[in-house]
Amino acid sequence: MSNAEQARRARLASMVGTTIEWYDYFLYGTASALIFAPQFFPDLSPTAGKLAAFSTLAIGFVARPLGGVLMGHFGDRIGRKSMLVFSLLVMGCSTMAIGLLPNYHAWGAWAPLALVLCRVLQGISAGGEWGGAALMAVEHAPRNRRGLFGSYAQIGTPLGMVLSTLVFLAVRGTTSGEQFASWGWRIPFLLSIVLVLLGLYIRLRVVESPVFAEVRQRRARLPVAQVLRHQPAALLVATGTFVGNNTLGYIFMVYLVSYSVDETGLGQQTALVNLLLGSVAWLALTPLFGGLSDRIGRRNVYLLGSALNLLWAFPLFWLIDTRAALMVLLAQVVYVVGVAATYAPQAALFTELFRPEWRYSGASLSYSLGAVLGGGFAPIICTALFGHFGTTAAISGYVVLVNLISLAAIAAIPRHLGKPAQHNAVHSTRART
C-alpha cells in the first residue's frame, strides 16, 4: 500500500471514528437539554431537574482525564490503532445502554445511577478517543499539511453533532410530544450500533502510525509520568488553549438549545434546526482553518478565532433575545466561526507539542483536562448564572473570562508551529516544546 493511500485511510478512519464517537457523546448533550430532567429527575423543579441533568453531563467530563491517562498509556505502549478500536466499542455499548435504560418511574433511584455509570463510560472513551484519532491523522501527514490532515479528526465533532441533531429532528418530527417523551428519545441512542459497526470496519483496515513504528523500541515505561516530568509547559499550553474553545463549544451544543426553548419561546424543532445549521457551518469551516494554520501558523489562527469569540460574547445573546428565529440563527452561525478557528488547529498543535514516545498521553491528557475545566461545567454555570442574575450579560462575561484564559495559553505557543518553512519535527523523537 502506498504512503498516500495509507494517509488517505488514516484521515478517513480519524474522521469517521470521531464522528461516531461524538454522535454518541452529543446525543447525551441534546437529551440532557430536552428530555433527561423529566425522565430521570421528575421530582425536582424544572430548574433543579435541568441542573441535575446537566450535572450528569458534567460527570462524563470528569471521567475524561481517566480515559486520557489509561488509553494514552496503552496508546503509547502498544499502538494508536488498538486504542481507537477499543474506544469505539466502549462508546457504542454505553450509548446503546442509555437507550435501553428504564426511567425513574420504572426503576426508581437506580435509573439516574445507571445513567451516571453510562455517562462515566462515555467520558472514559472520549478521553482517549481524540488523542488517538488526532495522532493517526497528523502522523501520516506530509510536514506542510499537518493542520489540514489533523482537521479531519476535528471534523468529527461538528459532523457528529449534525448526525445526532438530524436523528433527533427526524424522531421528534415523526412522533407526538407524548410519544417522544415516552419512547421516541431512545431511538437515536439505539441507532448507534449501526454507526459503530461501520466505524469498526473502517478502523480495522487502517495501518498503524509510522511514527509509533519508529519509536516502538524506545517506548516510555510510564508515558504520562514522562509528560509531567519533561514537558509540563507543553501540557499547560495545550490544556489552556482548549479551555475557551471547549466552553464555547458546549454553550453552543447544549446550553443555547435549552435557553432558546425555555427562555425565548422557540420551539424544540426550531432550536434543533438552528443547532443543525450552526453545526454545518462549523463543519465547513474546520478544514479551511486547519489548512490556514499550515500557512500562517497555529498561533495566528488561534488568535484570530479568540478575537472573534471575545467580540461576539455580548452580541450573541443580544440577537438571541430578539426571539426571531433568523436572528438566533445568525447569532449562532457567527459564533461558530470563532469556535471553528480555535478548534481546527488543535490536532496538529497537540501533536507538535509532545515527543512521540509519550505523545498519545500528552495529547489525551491535555484535551481531557481542557474539557473538564471548560465545557464540562459550562451548561451548569450558564444555567446558574442566568438563574441568579436573571440576565445573559453574566453569561457573556463568563465567555470573555474563559477566552482570556485561553489567550494567555495561546501567547505561549511557539511562533514557528505550523509554518512549513520551519522544521518542527513531528516525526522526530527530538521534538520539544
TrEMBL record:
Membrane topology of this protein: Multi-pass membrane protein
InterPro entries named among the record's database cross-references: MFS, MFS_dom, MFS_trans_sf
Segments forming domain Major facilitator superfamily (MFS) profile: 10-415
GO molecular function: symporter activity
Principal place of residence: membrane
An annotated GO cellular component: plasma membrane
Compartment(s) of residence: Cell membrane
Transmembrane stretches, start-end: 21-41, 53-71, 83-101, 107-128, 149-171, 183-202, 233-259, 271-289, 301-320, 326-344, 365-389, 395-413
PROSITE patterns per the UniProt record, alphabetical: MFS
Keyword Chloroplast: no
Keyword entries, A-Z: Cell membrane, Membrane, Symport, Transmembrane, Transmembrane helix, Transport
Gene3D superfamilies given in the database record: MFS general substrate transporter like domains
Alphabetized CDD domains for the sequence: MFS_ShiA_like
Biological function: May be a proton symporter involved in the uptake of osmolytes such as proline and glycine betaine.
Family membership noted in the UniProt record: Belongs to the major facilitator superfamily. Metabolite:H+ Symporter (MHS) family (TC 2.A.1.6) family.
PANTHER family noted in UniProt: SHIKIMATE TRANSPORTER
Protein name per the record: Putative proline/betaine transporter
Origin species: Saccharopolyspora elongata
